Amino acid sequence: MTQASTNSTFKNQALANATGVSSTAKQEITVEFLAADPADKATNFPRIWVNTTTGALKYTVDGSTVKTATVT
C-alpha cells in the first residue's frame, strides 16, 4: 500500500519554535529533552520539555507558571 503524500500538509518555513513567541495561538513548538528543568524559561517561552532525570513532561506558556503533565 502506498503512503499518502505529505506535500499538501507540510508547512514550509513553519518549523517548530523553541525560542519563544509573542503569542501561543497556532504555534508549533519542539519538545526538548533536558536533564534538568531549563533555567531560562522566564525569558524563553512558550516551552515544553521532558525532564529526563524525573521523566516528567512539563510546559509553560507564560514563563512563570510551569505545569506538569501526569498520567493517571
Automatic annotation (TrEMBL):
**What's the protein here called?**
Uncharacterized protein
